[in-house]
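**Backbone shape codes:**
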Amino acid sequence: MKKLLNFILYTALSLVVFVVIYLIAVFTVPAISMPAETVSDKNITIYILTNGVHTDIVVPLKTADKDWSREISFKNVIKPDTNATLVAFGWGDKGFYLNTPTWAQLKFSVAFKAAFGLSSSAMHATFHNSLRESSSCKKIAISREQYLRLIRYIENSLKMDSNGHVINIKTTANYDDHDAFYEARRRYNFFYTCNTWANNALKACGQKACIWTPRDKPIFDKY
């Protein structure tokens, strides 16, 4: 019995120490910035977009280098709008995306699996006609070479089938009429969240970013 109690106390103490260290890191490490690259030909516009919790990377739907609509098809959304000019990508835990319509409906099992990397991931893609800059939407000008790197980063985050095509997730858990979900690579966890993915996307294309962050606010503080 004594050994069991000691084990429980040790486990509880270890958990408390982990949480304290993690929270300290969450609110200090993101303050360390990665500077933007210095380039002259910034002729491509991207955006970062947040709903207050989660960050999306928004890119042109079609350029000479990439037509996202060939894979991220209008056919996969509820109400196709072929006038869309932008597509937003948001990586995250598949369970969160598909089984948690609102925070009030969040299940412990979903949160636990996500936190400890026990679930798979998904890419949420949303079509937009246009975006207006605000505190939750920031415009960023990048070069063609930087955009090519961003394209590769997003492509490498998507899981492909045996024929090299993205895998649409058939679901009714859409957020609106213009979005769809796709199978993605990696697993969500305490240290690699949806915002970590977005922050890494900015680093991949040479933009201002945090050295690491699990939250959206530190990213937007850079802009």
Summary: Residues 32-221 form one domain. The first strand starts at residue 33 and ends at 34. The two ends are 56 Å apart (CA to CA). The beta strands are 33-34, 44-50, 55-60, 86-93, 121-128, 137-142, 168-169, 179-184, 209-210.
